[in-house]
Amino acid sequence: MEEQNNKDEQLTNAQLELQADAAGPGEVKRISYAGLIARRFFRQKSAVVGLTILAILVLLAIFGPFICKYDYTDPDFTAINVAPNARHWFGTDGGGFDLFACVVHGLGRSLVIGLTYAILTTAISAIVGTAIAYARGWGEKIGMWLLDMLLVIPSFLLVAMIVRAASGTQGWIMLILGLTAFGWIGYARTLRTMALSLRERDYVRAAKYMGVPSIKIILRHLIPNLGSILVIDTVLCVISGINSETAYSFLGLGIKAPDTSLGYILSQGSSAMLSAPWIVLIPSVVLIILCVSMQLIGDGLRDAFDPYSRAAGEVADEESKKDEAKKAAAAAAGNAAGSHHE
Amino acid sequence: MARFLGYLAKRIVNYIVMIFVATSLTYFLACAFMSPRSNYESRTPRPSQESIEASLDKANLNDKTPVTERYQRWLTNIVTEWNWGLSPAGDSVNNEISSRIGASVKLMLLSTILSIVIGVSLGVYTAQRQYQWQDRFWSGLASVFLVIPTVVLAILIVFFAIEINQQTGQRIFYVTGLSSYDGPNFFIGLIDFLQHILLPTIVLTIISSVGYHLNQRTYLLDEMHADYVRTARAKGLTKKQAIRKHALRASLIPTSVNVAFSIASIFTGAVMTEKIFAIHGMGEYFINCINNNNINGAVAVAAFSGACTLLGALLADLFAAALDPRIKMS
Fold this sequence. Notes:
- The structure holds two protein chains of two kinds.
- By secondary structure, chain A is mostly helical.
- Chain A has helices at residues 2-22, 33-42, 45-67, 99-135, 137-152, 155-164, 171-198, 202-209, 214-225, 227-250, 262-269, 277-305, 318-341.
- Chain A contains 13 helices and no strands.
- In chain A, helix 6 (155-164) packs antiparallel against helix 7 (171-198), helix 10 runs parallel beside helix 11 and helix 11 packs antiparallel against helix 12 (277-305).
- Mean pLDDT of chain A is 79; it is low at 316-342.
- By secondary structure, chain B is mainly α.
- Chain A: It is a multi-pass membrane protein.
């Protein structure tokens, strides 16, 4: 009797499947990998908040110069060191420069430097890191020795030496180049460790025995399989790029007058902290908002790529939802009992 | 034991070669990008050409001498006399560095100890309460502090300290230097020192304890879900006992590696904090070297930091070998 029932059920299930197939692909919503990640990303409130803030900041950096009456290069001598007011939204500094114009320009600089640095650094470190892992043997040994050797001297020193020689207006390009030249080394080391398990995969071996050139294997098989890590790294790398720009410009080594950046404004304002606190506070707040929004996006991406995270969402019908609730209640009760014993 | 010593010797030789190559590269880079000549040429009144050449030659910084020749002379002085050369102004780099290490150690020692203690304990605390409000609060705070630029953090702390000073009408916090009292009274001196060191210590402690906190949290969470902890629980240990006796110990091994690197960084100082609080330590010396085209000074700082980093790496290996029974020296 029971067997009969089971058979019936199986039949009906099979029939259902057949019906579903017959209904065509329109019935099943297919979703690309990128679409899936995007859906998981947007499921998280904090990530959406981060992305919104970043979008606002980017819009501000692009359109800010057009809505502001003043340029960051021409001072208003009738208003020197004035607090934020209707004419100068963020006030002016000791030279009469409109702080809103300066901050907007500096924000643009920070974003450009951070993004370019992050993309270049990630690209270089991905190629070098996986290439060293793929090389094996002596190539790997020599590569690792070179990486370790380059890491011995703090890159802060080397970058400072290079960017200090740059001139005022081209300084930001030099800063990107200098930061990138020594910023990829640590990442390359990490990515090499990640690639160690990838190089043992069957598809890599298969490609190798089919005579695919090494460069192609690295670019087509190894790096794409690190994709999720690379995307997250790039976002977090933007933060370190922005931090470095601020640090160098503050020290007077990175971006210098007549150009301006958030770090440069901070260094100018720090000497007049008592008489004109807004010069220091406004760029600080902008920097904090910028970095925190990038951090929120990075965390959101990490969760979106992680198949075990809660961002994956729950797909459940009514019946199993009830089951889940029951299980959760039981577990909570069990926990309570357990903690009682402790 | 003999094998262990052999391993250690091999490591040290490798590190010395690394420092040598890296420092030499830095020397050539510095020679290419810094021009001590401009220090003299920008002076008013401009010194005579002969005196410029003579001063540059004396400091072994003349860019008209081939760089290989200068490098050779620089290296010979270091190897034979441990003399790291002269600044463009003619001061000995050795003296300047040795007088500045003390200030950096004074600044870094307290904050390093504090950040390890605070960071690790917060990490353990939050890992045990994963996803509870304490964890969310502290870890959220940590990830905010993680991304705030050091400059911004330091400037904001200085700003609020000055505000407090003005509100109370007293100088509670000092924001520059390490001491301003020169008298014989030890206790006044100590209080004066504490007033000076408090703010930079807060900045440095926040920056580095955040790293310890987040790392320790991850390490402990990894260990808490390991099989051997479940075994311990199954044998009847409470969750707290299992964590304290088993998971915590294992999770401290990777932390000890970080501690090793921190110990080494005590001597190299902190660039941004020293600059903002006007502390004359190694970090500030490095900035001055760059700004004054002091090639010999900058290279010496690079070599010194390199040596400290590798000392940290060596310590890390030793710590890991002492704590982790799975590691064999080979």
